[in-house]
Design goal:
Blueprint (H helix, E strand, L loop, with lengths): L2 E5 L1 H11 L4 E4 L6 H12 L6 E4 L3 H13 L4 E5 L2 H5 L1 H9 L5 E6 L13 H4 L7 E5 L2 H16 L7 E6 L8 E5 L2 H7 L26 H30 L7 E4 L6 E5 L3 H14 L4 E6 L1 E3 L3 H8 L4 E6 L12 H9 L8 E6 L9 H17 L6 E3 L5
Parallel strand pairs: 2-3, 2-4, 4-5, 5-7, 6-7, 10-11, 10-13, 13-14, 14-15
Antiparallel strand pairs: 1-8, 6-12, 9-11
Length: 395
C-alpha cells in the first residue's frame, strides 16, 4: 500500500491529481475549494509535479481553458465552489456534448444568499442535468479515491464524459483524516494514459463547438443518453478494479450501514452520513432497529440499486442538503429521485423528506435523533402526516 498521511480533503484531491499525471490545470479562487489549487501550485513550484497551471480571470474562463485543453488531447483538472460553480454554467453542456472527460472538483458551499462557507449541495446539484458523472466523497480518503476513479470512468471509450468529483465544503475539504496515498505504480496499473477518440489536430482540421444544425441535435442528445447508460457498467468495473488494486472495499452506488434487521433508515449522501451513522449506532445500543443507506453515485442515478436497497424497509427518511424551492413533495431532489425509484413498490415503503444543513450549518446529532424519532412514529402508525420537513424549523 501507499503512505499513510493525516491530510485534508483538498490536499488529498491535489495528491490524486498529481498521481493521475494531469497535463493542464486551470484555477480561480473561491473558498473552500481553493486549497486544492494552492497545494497543486506548491507541488509544481517545488518540482514535485509537471503540469501546465493556468490561472484564469474567472470561473467561466476556467472551464473554457480545460474545454480547449481536453479537446486538444490533454488530461485536465479544474474546480470551484458556490457561485463560482454557477458562473461557469454555460460551458458545462458543450464539454459533455463534445464528449470531453474534463474533471472538476466541487468543494461545495451555499449559494448567495447566504453564501456561507460550510457545506450545502445546492451549488453542485444545480448542475445535475449537464450530463456529467457526479458523486460525493464523505472523507478525505474518499476525496482522493473518487478523483482517480472518475478519471478512469470518464475516460473510458464507452463513456467519454466529464465528471464532478464533489466533497462537502469544510466537513471534508478542511478537516484532516488518515489517507492512504497510493504509489504511482498502483495508479498507473489502474489509470491508463488519456487518449480521446477525437481531438484538435492541425493535420486533421475539424470544428469542435456548441453550435450545430437543428437536425443534428436529437442524435447528439441520444449519444449522451447512451453514454450515461454505459457509465453504469463502467462504474461497476472501475470500482472492482480499484478495490482490488488499492485494497479498498467500496460499493459503487449505495452503501448500507446496520440495515440487516432495520425497520427504518435514513438515506443521504456526503459527509453528514458520518454523523447519521454515529447516531444510528447509539440507537442500536438501545435496541432500536435503525440504519443508514448512503448514496455514492448521484449521476447516473442508480435507480435499480436504490430500489433494491430501500424496498426492504418500512420507512425511509431522505435527507436533502440542498434548497429546491417549489419542488414536488416540498423536500429536495433526492426525495424526488427516491420516490421515483420506489414507485413500483406502491405504499409498501413510506418515504419522508428532511431538508437540513442549509447555509453551511452542521446537521447535528440532535437533529438526526429527531429525524429517526419521526420515522419510527411513521413505522408505528403507518401514516405520513407531512411529505417533508425543513429542519430544524418544522421538526
Amino acid at each position: 500500500m501507499g503512505k499513510k498521511r493525516l491530510i485534508t480533503g483538498v490536499v488529498a484531491t491535489a495528491e490524486a491529481v498529481r498521481l493521475a499525471d494531469v497535463d493542464v490545470i486551470s484555477s480561480y479562487p473561491i473558498r473552500p475549494y481553493t486549497g486544492i489549487m494552492s497545494e497543486l501550485a506548491r507541488m509544481i513550484a517545488d518540482g514535485e509535479f509537471d503540469a501546465e497551471f493556468v490561472h484564469a480571470e474567472g470561473e467561466h474562463a476556467q472551464l473554457s481553458v480545460v474545454y480547449g485543453a481536453s479537446a486538444a488531447g490533454a488530461r485536465t483538472f479544474t474546480g470551484s465552489a458556490g457561485v463560482g460553480v454557477t458562473y461557469a454554467m454555460e460551458v458545462y453542456s458543450p464539454i459533455s456534448g463534445e464528449r470531453l472527460p474534463v474533471q472538476m472538483a466541487i468543494a461545495d458551499r451555499t449559494l448567495d444568499p447566504p453564501g456561507d462557507f460550510g457545506s450545502e449541495h445546492t451549488d453542485a446539484e444545480v448542475c445535475r442535468d449537464q450530463c456529467w458523472i457526479q458523486g460525493w466523497a464523505a472523507t478525505p480518503q474518499e476525496a482522493l479515491d473518487l478523483t482517480l476513479l472518475y478519471y478512469r470512468i470518464g475516460e473510458d471509450a464507452n463513456v467519454l464524459l466529464p465528471q464532478y468529483a464533489c466533497q462537502d465544503g469544510y466537513f471534508v475539504s478542511h478537516i484532516t483524516g488518515e489517507v492512504d496515498v497510493p504509489e504511482r505504480a498502483q495508479v498507473r496499473e489502474f489509470l491508463p494514459p488519456y487518449k480521446n477518440k477525437h481531438k484538435l489536430d492541425i493535420y486533421d482540421p475539424q470544428i469542435i463547438g456548441a453550435q450545430i444544425e437543428p437536425n443534428m441535435g436529437p442524435p447528439l442528445q441520444y449519444q449522451r443518453v447512451l453514454a450515461m447508460r454505459n457509465a453504469k457498467k463502467v462504474i461497476k468495473d472501475a470500482y472492482t478494479d480499484y478495490n482490488r488494486i488499492f485494497g479498498r472495499n467500496y460499493s459503487p452506488f449505495v452503501e448500507e450501514y446496520m440495515t440487516g434487521d432495520a425497520d427504518v433508515v435514513i438515506f443521504l449522501q456526503g459527509a453528514h452520513s458520518q454523523t447519521a451513522i454515529d447516531v444510528a449506532k447509539r440507537l442500536r445500543n438501545h435496541g432500536e432497529k435503525v440504519g443508514v443507506v448512503r448514496l455514492r453515485t448521484y449521476r447516473p442515478f442508480p435507480t435499480e440499486e436504490v430500489r433494491d436497497a430501500l424496498s426492504k424497509f418500512k420507512v425511509v427518511g431522505v435527507v436533502d442538503n440542498s434548497a429546491n424551492f417549489g419542488i414536488a413533495g416540498g423536500g429536495g431532489d433526492l426525495l424526488t429521485e427516491v420516490r421515483t425509484a420506489l414507485y413500483d413498490e406502491g405504499d409498501k415503503v413510506k418515504t419522508v423528506g428532511f431538508v437540513a444543513g442549509l447555509g453551511g450549518e452542521a446537521i447535528t446529532r440532535d437533529e438526526f435523533y429527531r429525524m429517526f424519532d419521526k420515522l419510527q412514529d411513521v413505522a408505528k402508525t403507518g401514516k405520513v402526516s407531512q411529505n417533508a420537513y425543513w429542519v430544524p424549523f418544522e421538526l
